[in-house]
Amino acid sequence: MLTLITGAAGHIGTCLHQELPRLGHRLRLMDRVRVEGTGIDQVVGDITDPGALARAMEGVHAVVHLAGDPSTSASFESVLGANIEGTYRVFEAARLAGVERVVFASSNHAAGFTPRQESAPADTPVRPDSLYGVSKAYGEALGRYYADRYGMRVACLRIGSFEPRPPDARALSTWLSPGDMVRLAHACLTAPDLTYALVWGVSANTRGWLDLEPGRALGYHPRDDAEVHAAGLPVLDPADPDHAWLGGRTVES
Ligand code: 15L
């Protein structure tokens, strides 16, 4: 079975296309830039181009949709093309090609303006903290629509802080390690009972505040914990916006 990864040259895309084959996944890559290497099945093109997407979807069983502007300070013009139009084009091309399953990279920032709470549910209502967060909430809504209307299996990942190691004190709670990102994608690509799911994309962080149960129900069992990287990072002051809001200091930008 063939899986298409959009945004395959990005940080998460690179991690996934390097590691998922070890778990038995056959991949096709799509990005605006060529992924260097030999023997790579890839389509170079933009996700706002239906023709490029139609080629990319041929024979595909599942899509991991990562492409888009990842910046919390992205302008409306930028999210309009890459995230709003692009995500619609990806879901629609997937439907037209009979793709069974889509894993969509959403973000914690779709609910970033929610006051932080212990074990925040993965289906915390949408409260975006940025136009980027708005675009991710829109992607979740599209996913829900394609699941309900067309029976597509859809998992939306509200990803925390994807980095090789936690870069700051907030990330001690919101970190998603590369290894756990691979485990999460694998679980969503293989869960037999997936219909529509909203899950947090975070590791098993000792200081975590996001409910991991919906992910576990899909077969995602995170193994990494930001705590092992805590030395030298400050403890968050409760008054710090990074502590007060799910999306951290993005609420102030
Ligand atoms: C995200 O969704 C962003 O793409 C990334 O730039 C970080 O802001 C990350 O969330 C985070 O919350 O740490």
Secondary structure: elements and pairs:
Blueprint: E1 2-6, H1 11-19, E2 26-31, E3 42-44, H2 50-57, E4 60-65, H3 76-96, E5 101-107, H4 131-150, E6 153-159, E7 161-162, H5 171-174, E8 175-176, H6 178-190, E9 196-201, H7 213-217, H8 241-244
Parallel strand pairs: 1-2, 1-4, 2-3, 4-5, 5-6, 6-9, 7-8
Helix pairs in contact: 1-6, 2-3, 3-4
Please, could you describe this protein's structure?
The protein has helices at 11-19, 50-57, 76-96, 131-150, 171-174, 178-190, 213-217, 241-244; strands spanning 2-6, 26-31, 42-44, 60-65, 101-107, 153-159, 161-162, 175-176, 196-201. The mean pLDDT is 97. The longest helix has 21 residues, at 76-96. The protein is globular. It has 253 residues and is α/β, with parallel strands linked by helices. It has one domain (2-252): Rossmann fold (3-Layer(aba) Sandwich), CATH 3.40.50. 33% of the residues lie in helices and 17% in strands. Strands 3-2-1-4-5-6-9 form a seven-stranded parallel sheet, with helices on both faces. Strands 7-8 form a two-stranded parallel sheet. The chain has eight helices and nine strands. The chain binds D-galactaro-1,5-lactone. D-galactaro-1,5-lactone (15L) is lined by residues 70, 72, 107-109, 159-161, 174. This is NAD(P)-dependent oxidoreductase. Keywords: NAD, Oxidoreductase.
Count of DSSP strands: 9
Name the shape in a single word.
globular
The helix fraction, in percent, is 25-40%
Q: What does the largest sheet look like?
A: 7 strands, parallel
CATH hierarchy, class: Alpha Beta
Low-confidence stretches: none
Heterogens: D-galactaro-1,5-lactone
Over all CA atoms, what is the radius of gyration? 17 Å
Structural class: alpha/beta
Query: Could you state the oligomeric state of the chains shown?
Result: single chain
Mean of pLDDT: 97
Strand fraction equals 15-25%
Q: What count of structural domains?
A: 1
CATH architecture: 3-Layer(aba) Sandwich
Order of helices and strands: EHEEHEHEHEEHEHEHH
CATH T-level fold name:
Rossmann fold
